[in-house]
Amino acid sequence: VSLSTDPKHFWASDSGIYAFGPNPGGYPYFGANFWQDWERPIHFEFFEPFDSLKVSVDAGIKIYGNWSRAFDMKSVAVYLRGMYGFNKMKYQFFPGKKVENFENIVLRNGGNDFTYTLLRDRYMSSMLENLDIGVQATRFCIVYLNNEYWGIHTLREKLNEEFLSNTYGVDRTNVDIVDLSTEAGYRSNEHFSTLYDFISQKDITAKVNYDFVQSQMEIENYKNYQIAEIYVNNTDWPGNNMKVWRERTETGKWKWLTYDLDYGVGLVEYFNAQQDYKFNTLDFATSTNGPGWPNPPWSTLLLRRLLLNNDFKNDFIQSFAHLLNTTFSPDSTLHLLYKVQDEIAPELTRHTTKWKNTIQFDWTSNIARINTFVRLRDVFMRTHINSKFQLGGLSNLTLVTNDSLGGSIVLQSYPIPKASFTGKYFKTVPIKLSAKPNPGFIFEGWKGISLNPDINITLTRDTVLEAVFVKDAAANQNVVINEINYKSSSSSDCGDWVELYNNGNEEVNLKNWKFRDSIDTHVFVLPEISLAPDSFIVLVNDSVKFRTVFPDISNMIGNFSFGLSSVSEVVRLYNENETLIDSISFSSSAPWPIEPNGTGATLALINPDLDNTLPENWKTSTTPGTPGKINDVFSNTTTEDGLPSTFGLSQNYPNPFNPSTVISYQLPGLSKVSLKIYDILGTEVATLVNEEKPAGNYNYELGIRNYEWSSGVYFYQLRAGGFLQTKKMIFLK
């Protein structure tokens, strides 16, 4: 990022926004210029790494934040206004968020973490981004001020009405945002004040009262928000840094927003050694007699009262348990930490040279403190939960599906992303489970337990549950997404388009079928049209552009009113009953083919019989696409003599297993084959195959009589030619 302005706008003693000015006073210098709400003109430019200029606008700039204003390098907010000649910046600043219009944006100095690691807020924001708790998108950037190196900043969305519109698709002029950082804030909005009084005064254990609360606030959002703040040990909260919002409609519900997490994952330990990974933030967040900062009674009342309701309490307990197994597991949090620290590590020397004496101790030891926190936090959090609610300890729950393509399992409200999953959950507290069949499958039952897809279980010991899915012979799931053009070349711009193919033997009426991208409100309803077997139809967002490039293609309909992202995208197809028929989540980076991103080529499925959710089954077209026709990269999955045309490794069956299981794999040609087993720590425990084999389909029956294995998760890995794939299996004694 390059910022250019007349130096007086930053440094003049009487008017510069970065200057101390004539009467700064003592730390944090409340009398300084940088505490004033002053805006100055700036020229803002943005460059992608190793790439050309992407944004160049005139704008306004203000100093941003609270006590972090006192640091030598300050946070700033950039404002687009008509008076500067630009009302918006049109660019997708954040690759993971499909937003391209910004009226303002923040360049943050790391807040309270400026003198320690610079990355806590971005790290925790990334950690929590899938919990739907209003996390702002972030990325690191290097700032130059008037061509002078100005160090590492975090580029971040500004938490305001524009953020809500960009994130939730609401009308920005019809939302309420309430700051709950003071007791007065709870009374600043009549609707929220009424809800607060209702929860504090009514019998929240009564179903009718709890139902009313659920009609006024998003319980799922609130639950996840509280769990996240408690896990990261943010002790600059809840009597500070808390905001809520709702759409100003009759049915609008309050949702919580997450921001300024700098105190989390070990920072406060620098000031209070007792508030480390062992600190009981659950008691802190439910305290009845906390001080005026950071956890006064008015700030903890809602959680305390809601925990009196058994439905909320049980959901809170087992949801916390689940997130400790997944989002907050040491494996997940450490992997993310390594990724985020690698983003700024190469730049630290220049940054610390610029801002001498601002990094306390050394950066490596500061990172190590975060590492220790996330490695050990889950154990202590389970202890705190067990103690507070007087539970009976933990048991392992293993959830498996008989067919990874057949469907999935939802625990509480969280989809289980794997065909086999094991986690620790609390005894004596019910767990909600739902089996969700994929398109083309039906749920047959929980093996040996129930035919109902929705069940509650209470653990008394380690337990394994299997959801059984079978193919639905009556369902027509043969229409597949077969080719995608998400970014044309500038020389032959045909607009965005998606090709559908009927891979079945019967004609399909597509009337009122719906095509969507990643945003639910982006929907194209298909007209009355039938798709014959072995036929194609192309959905386009600009029929004029499309016909200019492909004048001979008539099996085309449009226009859908939205564009497809050239960074990452989800395209979805629903039938007239809103049943999901096909869905593909793709990106313009590996392992997906990268050439379709603006070269003129398309993303083409190798064969419609293959799983089109897997990137290895897509290739770059060799021509500028083949809309309405067979793909030019089409390949049979088997040869004429019945031999495989590709490498493959299947899920073992049965799984979990004892005493034996079968591992199937396929070879398209003569190959040196290695099939090995590894334990959960990555230690090799068995070599099943280590020899050259001809093309064919192979089934290896693994019996464990010759192995001294403990119950648990193991991994089997096939290496053949240039092919490498690993899958997980579970052995139960």
Integer tally of domains: 5
Radius of gyration: 28 Å
Give the termini separation: 58 Å
Strand order of the largest sheet: 1-2-3-4-7-9-8
Q: What is the overall silhouette?
A: globular
> Would you count the extended β strands for me?
39
- Residue share in helices? 10-25%
Specify the oligomeric state: single chain
The assigned structural class equals: alpha+beta
Average pLDDT, rounded to a whole number, is 92
The number of helical runs is: 13
Characterize the structure shown.
This protein folds into five domains: 160 residues, no CATH class; 170 residues; 73 residues; 142 residues, Immunoglobulin-like, CATH 2.60.40.1260; 84 residues, Sandwich (Immunoglobulin-like), CATH 2.60.40.2550. Helices cover 20% and strands 30% of the residues. The chain contains 13 helices and 39 strands. The chain is of the alpha+beta class and 733 residues long. The mean pLDDT is 92.
Sequence-ordered SSE layout with sheet pairings:
Layout (H helix, E strand, L loop, with lengths): L1 E3 L3 H4 L28 E8 L5 E12 L10 E5 L9 E2 L10 E2 L1 E5 L11 H9 L9 E8 L2 E9 L4 H8 L6 E5 L10 H12 L5 H10 L2 H14 L10 E5 L7 E3 L23 H5 L11 H10 L3 H16 L4 H15 L3 H7 L8 H26 L5 E8 L5 E5 L2 E3 L3 E7 L4 E7 L3 E6 L7 E4 L5 E9 L7 E7 L11 E6 L5 E2 L4 E3 L6 E3 L4 E2 L4 E5 L2 H7 L6 E3 L9 E7 L5 E8 L15 E3 L12 E3 L27 E2 L10 E8 L3 E8 L5 E10 L2 E8 L8 E9 L2 E9 L2
Parallel strand pairs: 1-8, 13-20, 27-28
Antiparallel strand pairs: 1-2, 2-3, 3-4, 4-7, 5-6, 7-9, 8-9, 10-11, 11-12, 13-16, 14-15, 14-17, 17-19, 18-20, 21-22, 21-31, 22-27, 23-26, 24-25, 24-29, 29-30, 31-32, 33-34, 34-37, 35-36, 35-38, 38-39
Helix pairs in contact: 2-10, 6-9, 9-12, 10-12
